[in-house]
Design brief:
The chain is of the alpha/beta class. It has three domains: 2-15 and 151-242, no CATH class; 20-147, no CATH class; 248-326, Arc Repressor Mutant, subunit A. Helix content is 45%, strand content 13%. The protein contains 15 helices and eleven strands. It has helices spanning 20-27, 29-32, 41-51, 56-61, 84-92, 96-107, 115-120, 124-143, 147-169, 171-174, 255-261, 263-271, 278-285, 289-301, 320-326, and strands spanning 2-5, 15-16, 182-184, 188-191, 205-206, 213-217, 224-225, 234-238, 276-277, 305-310, 313-318. The chain has a four-stranded mixed β-sheet, with no helix packed on it. Strand 10 (305-310) and strand 11 form a beta hairpin. 36% of the residues are buried. InterPro entries: ArsR-like_HTH, HTH_ArsR_DNA-bd_dom, Metal_resp_trans_reg, WH-like_DNA-bd_sf, WH_DNA-bd_sf. This is Transcriptional regulator, MarR family. GO terms for molecular function: DNA binding; DNA-binding transcription factor activity.
């Protein structure tokens, strides 16, 4: 059991964020155990030939076989929606001694260090540069073009849902609702560790005015903290809607809906059971964003969709009228 202890005011500084760097690094877990991440299998099949062009030995070693990841690879985001390039630059500034300590904490014993890591730790500065370059190449070769837009939409939808829970039911419903491992006592958030892959080395965490950041991820079976409890408090938890990552666009089987809206708009309305951006919808339907945008505008004007803006990204979701129409 790990206890996150809240003092007066700590709950007010608890916030949500997501991290493209974290998701990129966590996705390497699927190279060890694809069966744990069935919704990523179509993506894994697509990228397998591309992985052979990368520093695969190193990339695989960044996640231990028991799926722990060195903390320096997943630092707490400085903003709610950081850019991958900014996070990678921050990664490149990791002190060498932190890199060494984090790998040893992840692998627990020298004997369990993979050869590529054991050799790299003899020159941590050069090893850090190699890691950053490998993660950068992996991001641009396997993730940035089509995988990340879909993942980002799922993470945005999760955070939007958590915000509604907080507004309607309060923190007492929000926090334990993140994962069944969590319970909330009113001053402590307790994380059960009985099903962790390895015995937990973690200690209790005092928030102590530092703020707790809650991070949804597609690569966790349950809530988990960083390995080092002295780092700024972070709790990763499974994002809602992970199964939609492997979905193909649904067929339009309701003739009445098709006759009413036309096939393209009917398919869009069915897809928007969870919020998504124009780019995400275009990827899923394999059409241009411009074509999707025109149909979304019509559905929005008809009152079937709502839209919210997050920075430069606009996300659409069905309204209650849209839900009723799809039923």
């Amino acid at each position: 059991m790990i206890e996150f202890r809240f003092a007066v005011g700590d709950l007010a500084t608890t916030s949500f964020a997501y991290s493209p760097l974290q998701e990129a690094v966590f996705s390497l877990r699927s190279l060890h155990d694809p069966a744990r991440y069935p919704h990523h299998r179509p993506w894994l099949r697509r990228i397998r030939p591309r992985l052979d062009t990368l520093d695969r030995e190193l990339l695989t070693a960044l996640a231990a076989p028991w799926l722990w990841v060195p903390d320096f690879l997943t630092p707490r985001p400085e903003h709610a929606r950081p850019a991958f390039t900014d996070e990678l630059e921050r990664l490149r500034r990791t002190p060498p001694e932190v890199l060494v300590a984090d790998f040893r904490a992840t692998y627990r014993t020298e004997a369990e260090l993979p050869p590529v890591v054991a050799h790299g730790l003899t020159d941590p500065a050069a090893f850090l540069a190699r890691i950053a370059d490998a993660v950068d190449a992996y991001w641009h070769t396997c993730l940035a073009a089509d995988w990340w837009p879909r993942v980002q939409s799922i993470l945005e939808a999760d955070i939007a849902h958590r915000g509604r829970v907080l507004a309607e039911r309060g923190a007492g419903a929000l926090l334990p609702g993140l994962d069944e491992r969590l319970t909330w006592t009113g001053s402590e958030l307790r994380l059960a560790t009985r099903d962790f892959v390895r015995p937990a080395p973690w200690a209790d965490v005092s928030i102590d005015g530092r703020g707790l950041v809650l991070l949804p991820t597609l690569f966790a079976r349950g809530a988990q903290p960083l390995i080092d409890p002295s780092r700024p408090p972070v709790l990763m938890y499974p994002a809602r809607g992970r199964a939609t990552l492997s979905e193909t666009p649904p067929p339009v089987t309701d003739d009445a809906l098709t006759r009413l809206l036309g096939r393209p708009r009917a398919r869009l309305l069915l897809l928007l059971a969870e919020p998504a951006s124009t780019t995400e919808l275009a990827h899923r339907l394999e059409v241009t964003p411009g074509a999707v945008s025109q149909h979304l505008a019509v559905l929005y004007d008809a009152g079937l969709l709502s839209r919210t803006r997050s920075g430069r990204v606009v996300r659409y979701a069905r309204t209650r009228l849209g839900d009723e129409l799809c039923r």
